[in-house]
Amino acid sequence: MSFLAKTFSQVIARAGTTTALLSKPRYPTSLTYRLASRQSSPQSDNKEQKKYEYLLVDIKGKNSNVALVQLNRPKALNALCDNKEQKKYEYLLVDIKGKNSNVALVQLNRPKALNALCDGLMRELSTVLQTIDKDDKIGCIVLTGSTRAFAAGADIREMQNNTLAQVVGAGFLDQWSAVAKIKKPIIAAVNGFALGGGCELSMMCDIIYAGEEAEFGQPEIILGTIPGAGGTQRLPRYVGKSKAMEMVLTGNRIKAKEAHQIGLVSAVYPANQLIDEAVKTAEKIASHSRIVVQLAKEAVNTAFETTLAEGNRFEKRIFHTTFGLDDRKEGMTAFVEKRKPNFTGQ
Ligand code: CAA
């Protein structure tokens, strides 16, 4: 997968001045980019074509100024976790957990840089999460890092020499929001540092569990910048204005215990038990109706984006909607018949 992401980036970079994403397909198998001018087209000649393991590249348009780059790896879902595939992730380890193999464990794996969230890592993470999101066998995701660091933020070395024009032009950090759009619940299991983008990444998840030694912070102010992946927006919603201001304006870090007290994390565990506890919760979530879990997640997230009256109206409609589902009938029937429900996701 990382090889795919890398190759894709290389192909786009070599295509020259990519200016607009034209089509956003339902499933990321085909992406079309319009080129302002065609500077070179080696991607599309036959010799070059053979070099790509996972892509088909062609030049289109009357003026040959559109590059069609097609992701070409139809069996990706099945192959997500097999050993051969595992080696292909550059920055992630992916495993399936739970008695019923219905929990995906995704581990950030860039130890030398404390899991700093470089562009390649975030692209790989988005792609893997989107793939898992479409896998019917998986009901919940656990996202974790190492014992030392969940993630120490966006990659400072990568950003150091960027100009305003470059970050605006490239839509720097735009692809990070893909994590917040995943429909399946994600539990962040945070050991060690969750700083800057690392703290923001954990807040994009649905539940945060922390190891006893975890530390959260938004230290961007120390670098002469501000949080850019939701820190100034999600943090005050989760912990209130005063604490969020204090963290964002001082760059001070808070420990797991305090993060728990202020409601940023919902539980703290000894570091070596953290992932097991997260997987246990994930298994419980995965045992419920997939479709109802998805709706419940959407309803709770709506609370952060709307007024109380609108939110209540939305919730009521979603509640009514569950009455169109077999799983709602099954859940209530199982209760009345004093047995366990057998959910089908319909
Ligand atoms: N980017 C790139 N590299 C990083 C990094 C980051 N965010 N954080 C740590 N690293 C690298 C260090 O450069 C170092 O690499 P070398 O060994 O090659 O020098 C390695 O990881 C280990 O780091 P330290 O030696 O600094 O380890 P430490 O234990 O002394 O300190 C730390 C740990 C407190 C986390 C410290 O590394 C630190 O302060 N990191 C930066 C945290 C930060 O400012 N994050 C915000 C980034 S900006 C952002 O995220 C914007 C946004 O909103 C998206």
Proportion of residues in helical segments: 25-40%
**Major sheet summary line:** 6 strands, mixed
Q: Return the CATH topology of the largest domain.
A: 2-enoyl-CoA Hydratase, Chain A, domain 1
Intertermini distance: 31 Å
Going by CATH, the homologous superfamily of the largest domain would be 2-enoyl-CoA Hydratase, Chain A, domain 1
How would you summarize what this structure contains?
The chain is of the alpha/beta class and 346 residues long. The protein is built from 15 helices and 14 strands. The relative contact order is 0.09.
Could you explain the architecture of this structure?
It is built from 15 helices and 14 strands. With 346 residues, the chain is of the alpha/beta class. It is globular and about 65 Å long. It has three domains: 66 residues, no CATH class; 195 residues, Alpha-Beta Complex (2-enoyl-CoA Hydratase, Chain A, domain 1); 48 residues, Lyase 2-enoyl-coa Hydratase, Chain  A, domain 2, CATH 1.10.12.10. The site of acetoacetyl-coenzyme A has 22 residues, from helix 6, strand 10 and helix 8. InterPro entries: ClpP/crotonase-like_dom_sf, Enoyl-CoA_hyd/isom_CS, Enoyl-CoA_hydra/iso, Enoyl-CoA_hydra_C. Its EC number is 4.2.1.17. GO terms for molecular function: enoyl-CoA hydratase activity. Pfam families: ECH_1.
